[in-house]
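Regression report. Comparing outputs from two consecutive submissions.

Submission 1:
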Amino acid sequence: MASSQHPIVTDTMLDTLRAGGSAVDAAIAGCLVQAVVQQDMTNHAGTVSALVHDAATGEILELNSMGTLVPGLAPFAPVPAGKGLYTAAQALPGIPGMPRAVIPGFMPGMQALFERFATLPWARLCESAVRWAEEGHVVTSFEHWVMAQTVDFFLYTESGRRHFAPAGHLPQVGDQWASPDLAETMRRLAEEGPDYFLTGRWAQEFVQRGNDLGWKVRLEHLTAIPPRWASGHRWEHNGHTVVQQSAPERQGIFCQIVLGILDELDITSVGHWSQNAEALYYLAHALRRATLETGLVNDPTVFGDTTAVLTSMPLIKGFADILRTAKTKIDLTEHVRLTRGFPAMASSGASKQPAGSCELTVIDGHGNWVQMMNTLQSGGIPGEVVGGVPMVGSHAMNSLASPIEGWVTGGGRMRSILSNTMILRDGTPWLSLGSPGNVHCTVPQVLSNILDFGMAPYDADDAPRCLPYEDDHTISVESRVGPEVTAGLARLGVLANPLPAYDYHMGTYQMGWRAEDGTLSACTGPRREGLADGF
């Protein structure tokens, strides 16, 4: 079975499985075509991460192939601030815009997966990407909507305008959007393998473009920091083993802190946060606490490893005790009314943030599982398009509060927060999941829905979600919660900020799971496009 955010991608993965390919073969083929048909969410120069369950050995391996900073090379951000959502973040000191140029991680990750696990020829895995780049795919309303919000970033550059607005405007809904440059790149990739992007012609053109713009990147930088294999971060919760990305990725530590706090607060006896204000108050505070604490996570090869300390039960219990003790003893509704307005879920507006990435779930007939992400984040030269491949660069900043942080000394990997998750029973996966969007705060909510509240996977994804508690005592939450929740928050001194009922920035989950009788199921969430299917 397979699940993705695009029917072409899901069909490609299933066709690869039917041809005798493994789950990794299917995931590689899916990623390659996804970067062709979903350029609003991903590209061939971004980041790849994965959890792979190898049925032959019983091992679960973690792949980290995020884009990398060049050691010793000063930050380079050629697109000025104000050019669309991708430059809405605060600029780096002394640097005119955001984001900054970095070494792509996508194709090194594809190569690492292929060399370790693939069973089909590389050219076979590229067939769908070549076909859809040549023929073009039909632009959907969601794709056009997202591109319209972000394209100003690419319209700043000549190559970006040529790629995204060849006739002076974006491809429209229903158009058959093809790219001759990308098609040629995909054909060469099929013929020459991943090295075409690492040392071959595309790599050489990438370096030349960077040099022409003033970025002193060299060809050897593209392979200087290879993808990293590890065993992932494992932790126990309610009789299950959860496997997620390990440091410098924050997700595993983050989720363990949040679910640990909720467990200490006996959240299931309090109620579910979609129906109970106190539970929502606790959840949003737990998300905030985990956000603050995991700002101290960095690459353990360069910094001290804070994993064990941050996930120690005495510390987590202390966080829970603080939340339990700090609640108001009086009704603060009048305070909220006088200072913030009437406490109700009134109108809702879209979140002002880009949320581009793609998650894949695939399980083959031999019991191999892959939970994988590919994304446009943290790869390439901002705003530029080389060989039909658009690039966003990285929003890494040196800040405890930054979702992405990296250092130009030491050669370590950047800190981020990615969503690949597997849940084990008796040592083998029974559920895997992942999502784009605000994964730092949505993964623990979906996990708690399943592991604490016993929800079915799709119901766990469908349920309303919130963002972390904000410093001004606001909780942003999808506006499907009832009026009794917002009134209850007001009594606690909190204003509810309404998000859309289904906010696509809050992610949409690709999930696969195994029932007790061994049958497999899959789903894709309700907040974006997608298709789950199997045979």
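Submission 2:
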Amino acid sequence: MGKDHTRLKAQEGVHEFGSKCAKLNYLFRELKDNDKGVDGEIELTQSSGVKNPFIAVQIKARSKVKITKKNEISLTVTSQNIEYWRNYGRPVILILFVDNRTPMYWVRVDNLKSRTFKIPITNQFDETTLSEFLRIISEYYTKIAMNLDIKDVSVVLSEFGFVGKLEDITNPLVASLNEAMNFIERKEYDEACMIYEALAKIYKESSSVFYNLAIILLKLDKIDEAFEVADVMYRKFPNNYETYEIMGSAFASIGEYEGAENQYAKALFIKSDNCAVWNLMGLVHYWDGEFGKAIQDFKKSLSFKETESVLMNLALCLTANLDYIDAVTYYDKVISLNNLSYDAYNNKGIVLKALWKLEDAIEAFEKAIAINLDNLYALCNLAFLLKDLGEDERALHYYQLAVEISPQNNQIHLNIGLLFCRLNNYQYASLHFEKIKKFIQINSVKTGEVGLVDIGYKVAYLITIDFSSGVAEVIDVENSSQLALFENFSLHMEGTSNSGEEIGSIQQYITPFEPSNNIIKGLIKRNEKVQQRKNNKMNKGGFWVIGATDDIDNYAFAIFSIEDENYYNKIIKEIRRKIELDYEMNDKLELSIINDVELKVLRTVARDSHQQIEIRFENRLFQQVYFNINFNGYYLAGIATGDIKKTYPFLLSENDLSMSVNFTCSGSDGRSRGFIIEDIKRISVNKKWE
């Protein structure tokens, strides 16, 4: 029975992980033979031009975990697991699954140094993992050696004592060197390695032979052998900067960044104007998360020689450091050197989107697509942006091009299905949902219905799919533009406070719900609508105040203060209708004195004992916190600038946080009204922000 329970728990973990991947735009492929230590692989479908965007996944399911005082979870694995992960051939992460109410935690494991390791609880598998996964993939596959240049054949020959033009030398050595270079150009490194290993035994005093051999070994991921060659170079050529460059590259290949930094520093001491080593130093700092140092290193390299690869590295580092404006400048410099750089246009589009220059972002993605129509990244990035803007037909066009390239991509089929729902073509939508039904989480076991929330900048839809007949059938599509990120609330923030009885309090204006039956396309009419709302937002809308009491329990609250009494009554009526509440008091009159002013408050207190209310906070769209409160299908949402740690620090203080929601309004009869819902436990917090 114990083994059966463990297997069922593991199966549940794999299913929940697959569903989570679909929501995060990751494509998850479960492996049939997963006994050795890998359950499947994920593909990053929205990566920034990264080649081989795959990460292997091992899912560990636990009934419960213990979090230490340092906010870490300790796990122990076998030596066989570690050896398997190290030699798997791709980066490997471990996912820790407890249940569908607890965040999934992750940690990289293909570089473990001991059987027992820690998982910080800040490492949650959510929207913030994309940049981390891109960095891991870049570190794994590039491993610095991929950025090193093989020394030209003529340089090697000059150390053998040959003179004259290269084409005039016809001895077997030249033929072997040229053959090796041809192998290298075709990335056939095993064959090139055999030639250079033979040459190293004959020409023992040629540093270039050992240098090239070491690079090839690093490209083959033969790290131990590369270290042996580096050791030979250290003994034979202690005054050559290449010796320390190779040693640094070997250290970097195993993630020993401090050792790599020390070796590169020695190389630069010998040859301080070497742009290649400055670039390698920058890569080490970038992979180690020291973006400030990396930026200075890349700029130093560029001061000696401006190359496309270093400009691109600097642009990527600036992007990771959230210096978006400077990043655009350097992507433009890459483009000025190579106007056919697909990655530069695609990455520039991603950064422009972060800067809210959406039309410019669209143009950048379109230029990338014009360069390479067969590359999935810009197609999906452009289609997703157009979909967010409500330009459904244009988005569908690009997604249909993408699905021809990747016909098994679940995320593409999901978005095509959502777009067909918007365009009232439920038959085609059902066909695409049918293709991915096993990746969609079933919310209701009894009815077999699935609810999908499709939220963009200007549009939002609630879609219901029925699987009870065994096939996907779209049964309801509700245009709910009031849930869109920008459509029906402004982004004005009054301020935050971290002192006194409230911590992290924030005021956020929000306008009333005004559902529209039309699909809103683009942002053309946005300014007009915002201008119209300025005159009535305080009369018909209200504002949020979210914070916590500074006491032992650290009790959190969300207050929605409303000016319009009719709007207040509408909200309370909807909440009463949607959810089942237990009432302690019903319209009890209380007398309060605030600043010598006597206030009469008609207050209702209810309890969410059936756990029907959910409050979600998540980092979204670069340095903005999106929150919504779901009253069993009736939503109130908002956005605040800043990450969760700074905007809502109280959310990070307790693992089991209780929260209340309080609606207030000044009535026409001179009495204030308050409707308080207590004991809300379903709080989802995306805690991690890098």
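Expected: both submissions complete independently.
Actual: both completed, but the second showed a warning that disappeared on reload.
Relevant detail on submission 2: Confidence is low (pLDDT under 50) at residues 165-170, 442-446, 488-540.
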